[in-house]
Write a structure and sequence with these properties.
The complex is a heterodimer. Chain A is mostly helical. Helices cover 71% and strands 0% of the residues of chain A. Chain A contains 17 helices and no strands. Chain A is globular, with a radius of gyration of 21 Å. In chain B, helix 6 runs antiparallel to helix 7 (222-237). The chains are: A mainly alpha, B mainly alpha.
Amino acid sequence: MISVPAFLFVFASLLSMFGRRRDDRAELNKFLVSAISLASLVCLFVPLCFPGAVVGDVRPLSGLMVLEIVVVCVVMWALPTRVFSSPEAPILYLLQGILLEGLVTESLWMFVAVGILGALGVSFLAESERRRRQDDPIGSVRLKVYMVYRLISLIGLIIFAVSILQSAEPFFLLSQLSHLPVPLWGRAGLTVALMSSLAIFPLHGWFPLFMSAPRLNMLTPIFVVELGILILARLFIPIWELLEVSASLVTTGAAFGVVYFAVLLFGENRLKRIVGYLLLSHISVMVLILLTSHTVNLSRVLIDVANVLISGAGLLICVTILVSRFGVQGVASPTGLAKPFPEVAACFLLCSLSLVGFPGTVGFMSEEAFLSGFSASHVVFLVVIVTATALNGYSCFRLFAGVFYGRPNFDIGRGMDLTLGERSALRTIMVLLIIIGLAPQVLLFASGL
Amino acid sequence: MSILPLFVAVLPPLIIGSLLLALIGVAVLQLFGSGDREHTITEIVKFGLSGSCLSAIGSGAILLAGPDLTLPVLDLALRPAPGQTFEFKLALDHLAIPFVLVTSLLCGTVGAFSRSYLHKDPGHGRFFFLLLLFTLGMEVIFMAASFEVLFVGWELIGLTSALLISFFFERRSTADNSLKAFLAYRVSDTALLTCSLLFALGGAEGVLISSHEKGLLPEGMLSIVIPALVILAALPKSAQFPFSAWLPRAMEGPTPSSAIFYGGLSVHAGFYLILRFQHQFVVPAFFYVVLVVIGILSALYGNLLAKVQTDVKSMLAYGAITHVGLMFIEVGFGFERLAIMHFVGHAFLRSYQILSAGSLVHESRSLGVAKRSSIFDRLKRPALFEWFHAVALDLSLRDGSQPTSMVNRLERLSSRIAAFEEWYTKGVVGGLSTATERESRVVDSASHASSALAKEQVKS
């Protein structure tokens, strides 16, 4: 049995799939998805809406779910309406439903199904995008790379599923995963699936390339990031205990990745790649801290998942506006967009600073939550993280100055003004970053922690 | 019935509270306001700065008149995770009072000056927002009761400094100079953050303001590493040798911000950190030795380079480096009160000089002081002074290229790693490196074309 919010999104997906896709239906689709998102928020207060979850167990993640739904709504307002009549729209709604189900289910097999369906869904999105861009060999090749990594993740999950086929009965609970006898090849499959989904070094190659590939449809990378992060948050306790030996492999990959991406960022000039590496560096920091903290629990990661959700969505909205409207590709030549579009500049700066832990933003609180839990035996990792944070902070400011400063070198026509949806999205993101940054108790209270 | 308890309860939090209220007001107006907001913003800023100033004076009077050694200002407990608390604690003691008062008075004065200086300027609202944020950051630094809270103020003034250097962002040089300053600040921030974390790891309390005896540093290697990190954090912030290159180039921003940042307040943040650290903890002897050595080097360096500057603001910047170096020497020899008096005098004098530099330039109808005779000219340039002059010129040229060479090294490393990244990804799907190389060429040629167009527009 699936939860009511997930069912609603699946229903929306079917509706938009079988309805005629015309521009006049795009507005209706946008309204439909917004209404379903709000209905999902209401469902959070009704435990009966989550039959697959242990009653009361949904609470620790409810704050995150609220935030995830709010962020997705904000992103949707910012997107051009034509996205809602695109061929990818039904898959995106399905992915959102899958994601929500993955957040609440207690059934191991439902969770594995969520992971497999999620990987298949984003692969389908990438393939449909690739077919539409046959005349763009660069974009096409990038998408191929992405699909290869997605297949790696999918194969890893299938291997894991096969390995526990005998021992895990149909209603096996996730919370008992650590007691499950999983053979070595099963654990290896799970490790590979996790590392690929979370883009941990060295299985990270797809993420920056995929960020560059689809020019207009930035919603897909948002879902990709969310899928990875929310799986990490949801599965955290049982999975890492299960990994045992391979946990050190993941730790090493994450530690190396932290510095690797930070140094890569330093010399990178392509806008979308910079944002991609910034997110990757932060995800690696998160994984590293989770694996090396002396106390391991979901609540420590809650604020940081919120940080990545909000900041990542804000950055991707800004990048969408810059790329689709002004054709900004890199930071080598200034655009002078700070003057005519101060909101975009402010949101961009705030989101990127939040990812490096600037005080007053969510990132600072997540940094406090993480770094104060470090033990003395992991001083090296501490130095790695602090160094990467310093480098990333400089890169963020370089990115901001490189994109927004200078004299405007093109005419800004009337049609280039921000839409109401975009303005609202940018302001909401900035307000969320500051409110949760100054009062993180709000999120913890919503999560019952 | 005494109303003193009421004052004690209300006045200290208002130092920060009035600034925060003004900041929220300006932010709301900037985001949601329309029409001519200049007058409203000016009034809000006036309320914020004067409220903070009067509260600081009142709080200082209460502390000095009362028997207590410390006065609590703010005590907030934020919960980033269950079972964890981030204590945002601010307090006043006798060491912090002069710094807080100077901050309030200088920022208020500069705010009043800026009212007419930036009248009808398109960036009026932005400037005052950043001014309020900077004032808040400085007050947090001077009243921070722990390293974590001090770090909050430290980062705030770093960002506001970089954003104000690039205030006139249409000029390319402002972005480059703000990046140089930001790089120096990041070195400082990293050192301070590491220091704060090591305190926690060492099991010691990183309390900066308390009425107890001096605290002890964690034992073992940390008793050497922590003081070293504190010095490393202070040097770039106060533009001391060898991190001084950014300061003269930071004068790109509006004159009022240059006055309080690089003359009055921000450049003394590192000095305050040193002063507070040795005041609060029992530090090893090498700490003082290093302070004196760095102070001497910085004072000599700043004085030498000031002599060969051709523009008045750069000369004043090197002058500030010299005086902060002298303050380091004073702290190194244990003359705390002398150092504080030096700070007060220097802050006001340097701010005044920088604020009036613009008028001086306008009156002399020149951008520099090259026409004035220097000691070198008056002494008819004997060989020794010629040699000093040449060394100073050479150092001045090298000073400017310092941050760029560090950035260049990191960029070269980055490009080597990027090449590895492309080779590694090529192994997954053949032909990718050709595709990405083509992509890079497209992006680079687009960037070059845009920058060439921008240069042509500048020339025309």
